[in-house]
Amino acid sequence: MNPAAGSFESRAALALKDAPLQKALGNFKPLFVAKRASAVAELADFEALRERAAQIKNAVLAELDVWLERYAAAVEAAGGKVHFASDAAEAREIILGICRDANAKTICKGKSMVSEEIALNPALEAAGYEVVETDLGEYIIQLAQEPPSHIIAPAIHKTREQVADLFEAHHPGRPREESVAGLVNEARHVLREKFFRADVGITGGNFLIAETGSSVIVTNEGNGDLSQTLARVHIVTSGIERVLPTLDDLSVFLRILARSATGQDTECYTTISTGPRRAGDPDGPQEYHVVLVDNGRSKMLGGKFRDMLRCIRCGACMNHCPVYSAIGGHAYGWVYPGPMGAILTPLFNGIAEHYDLPNACTLNGRCQSVCPVKIPLTELIRTLRSEQVKAGLMPARQRTLLAAWGWVACQPGLYHALERFGSRLLRARAGRAGRIRALPGATAWTQGRDLPAPAGETFLEQWRKQRGEA
Amino acid sequence: MSESPRVGLFATCLMNVFRPNIGFSAVALLERAGCKVSVPMAQTCCGQPAWSAGDDDTARALARQVIDQFEGFDYVVAASGSCIGTLRKYPEMLATDPDWAPRALALAGKSHELLSFLADELKVNIDSAYPGRASYHDSCSGLRELGVKSQPRSLLREVKGLSLLEMDDAEVCCGFGGSFCVKYPAISEKMVDDKIRSLEATGADTLLGGDLGCLLNIAGRLKRKGSRIRVLHTAEVLAGRADGPAIGDEEPR
Ligand code: SF4
Predict the structure, then answer these.
(1) DSSP state of A176
(2) How close is the nearest chain A Cα to the Cα of B139, in Å?
(3) Rounded to an integer, what distance in angstroms lies between the CA atom of residue B236 and that of residue A225?
């Protein structure tokens, strides 16, 4: 998907006024936050698991080239084929080539954030393929022609009525369904027929296992399994950072992923695929391809943002982010929203182009307190701001103000004089009211809030009067 | 703890200008607990606004200034989790500066947020009274950077007449976030409205917290909406200095 047009602020303003979206966001707490809290509380060693998971990832990232080589060798040994794509365009080309060689007409897709990242669907559709998203949420936003607004619940911003409208418009000849169960059933019927027609199945890969050459997907709908086992050709798309050394390591991640994502002990389906169908296998694809996408990841590996490559795309950070909860995912302007998106989007698409994302954060730290792989998200967000300042991207007015303030703050006499002056000025403006309702130059504060007024004399001057120096 | 620990009070910019009563409350509590309190007169800012904005050089200059003025004390204490959180980051800020890194480390090691310092390091006799139903908002820096959670509550339980009501989402950010609230006012207002909804659901008549930035934000929004809920720093209640107008409230005639 290409980054959205318009500014972050205009998208955020729209989101704040979008009543159905606000209603959907209101459901986050019972849906994600409360469930995660109880799932985590049930596990005595969750903290130890987080630590272990972060260690495993760090060890892999320290020798990523080695692990990728081992993984690729294991895939080939199992009869599969590995393709490395340095950027989104190359990844699309590779996948189009595989589909061409397979003489495909219909392509079924399991949920994959990498496929969103590389804007795969438009490319496949432009080449004339029928592309069907089979994850219910992805299917809904495919019909609506919208980007996902959440990495694990892509259509979370849509209400039941909106989904009913979409289905009615796109499923001619079927009666309108209103209930959730009815809508799910309708999607199941429509999708089932496509699964059997599919020539190629494309899935993501939550984890790649170096020792066995396996790819692992974790879903709640089983749609990924149907996509990958019924088609003649299975293509896995994955970031290069998703490798784990062994199945033992996988067991650590399976214990934290579902709990962090949806508050389940485990997702309904965990599927480990290794190579194409072997002689004697009852089912499975004839060809098995893995497309490993770099797209800026190896650059992150060598820099200040390496920790971000531990991300397992669980969504916990956005579920717990008060800014995301206020504006939803589309305001972030690309496929990755919330705290992880505020870091990944500028890193992938430019810190100038996405200036607002790292700045629209209160650095409250709730995201990193729930991140299952202990990514220091607020630290990385602050580091991005520092990179933006170094690149001269801070708006001139703010830069001048900050520089002037910084200079004055290093001159205590002057700083205190200004504080005394400001204190009296504000006190005079407030009178006995104790607060100021409108203040020129501070409208961003006073448009929605009163400004509590100072007492008139600063603490330091009162202290000096009472106790003398120091 | 040794006889009369020498404490340097870090005043914080917001307290110095907007709410000196918090500073005097902090001094009263520290002295009651047996500390010898000094207020270095050349102190200014901890550097947080610069550090958060990504202006690392300005933040480092201010960090050196704070270290210079405060390293001689046994402890540095401020009635703000976010300013102390910044002092605790000095070692990270000055890590590549061989002259200053050890001094930063030493300062960070003796810097404490007031409420946790009173509860964890000292024995303080709280003999104040506050008739009211209060709810405590956990400010983010204090909570997540310094682990301030149980200490203010246990101190407040000793205040006569005060009942403590927990609100939903007490740990969720109020939308202040330093310059965030003026850079993205619409998002910030939505966040503070969520906070106020949780607060009002408790039936509390008082909101308490440990960080003036959050309190100014919440009080500012409450007062704009005409709410009568009083907003105070926890130290003011603990020190028995909560009789005057609360934050943003009218002065009596
Ligand atoms: S940053 Fe952490 S919490 Fe957010 S999606 Fe990635 S792993 Fe999950």
Answers:
(1) P
(2) 9
(3) 61
pLDDT in tens, chain B (253 residues): 457 999 999 999 999 999 999 999 999 999 999 999 999 999 999 999 999 999 999 999 999 999 999 999 999 999 999 999 999 999 999 999 999 999 999 999 999 999 999 999 998 889 999 999 999 999 999 999 999 999 999 999 999 999 999 999 999 999 999 999 999 999 999 999 999 999 999 999 999 999 999 999 999 999 999 999 999 999 999 999 999 999 999 988 7
What is the spatial distance between Cα B115 and Cα B154, in angstroms, rounded to a whole number? 10
Query: Are A351 and A388 in contact, with CB atoms under 8 Å apart?
Result: yes
ipTM greater than cut 0.90:
yes
Amino acid at A196: F
- Report how far residue B251's alpha carbon sits from residue B253's, in angstroms, rounded to the nearest whole number: 6
Say what the pTM is.
0.95
Question: How far apart (Å, rounded) are the C-alpha atoms in residues A200 and A98?
Answer: 9
What is the Å distance from ligand 1's center to A313 Cα? 5
CA A451 to chain centre: 36
CA angle A388-A391-A392, nearest 5°? 90
Residue A278 DSSP label: P
CA distance A30 to A165: 26
Mutation site for B-interface testing, chosen from A363, A386, A418 by largest number of B Cβ within 10 Å: A363
Q: What angle do CA A54, A58, A59 make, to 5 degrees?
A: 120
- Both tokens assigned to A273: 């695929």
Calculate the dihedral angle through the C-alpha atoms of A38, A43, A45, A51, rounding to the nearest 10 degrees.
-60
3-state class of B136 per DSSP? Answer: strand
Quickly list H helices, A171-221.
Answer: 180-197
Q: Please identify among residues 362-391 of chain A the ones whose CB lies closer than 8 Å to any CB of chain B.
A: 362-366, 369, 382-390
Give the mutation target among A375, A377, A380 for probing the ligand 1 site: most ligand atoms within 8 A of CB: A375
User: Which protein residues touch ligand 1 with a CB less than 6 Å away?
Assistant: A 311-317, 340, 371-373, 375
Q: Are A318 and A150 in contact (CB under 8 A)?
A: yes
First-residue to last-residue Cα distance in chain B: 46
Structural contact between residues A334 and A345, judged by C-beta atoms closer than 8 angstroms = yes
Residue B37 C-beta-side C-alpha neighbours within 13 Å: 21
* Phi, psi for residue A273 in degrees, rounded to 5: -115, 135
| CA A124/CA A80 separation, integer angstroms | 22
Q: List alpha helices for chain B, DSSP H.
A: 13-18, 20-32, 48-53, 56-70, 81-88, 90-93, 101-109, 114-116, 140, 146, 150-156, 180-183, 185-201, 212-224, 234-238
Report which residue type is found at B245: P
Residue where the block lists tokens 């203040």: A439
Length of chain A, please? 470
In 3D space, the residue among A250, A283, A232 whose CA is nearest the CA of residue A107 turns out to be: A232
Rounded (10°) angle between helices A160-170 and A136-144: 70
Other C-beta atoms lying within 10 Å of the C-beta of residue A386: 19
CA-CA distance, B112 to A160, in Å (whole number)?
50
Answer for the pair A264, A43: CB distance below 8 angstroms, yes or no. no
CA distance A137 to A153: 6
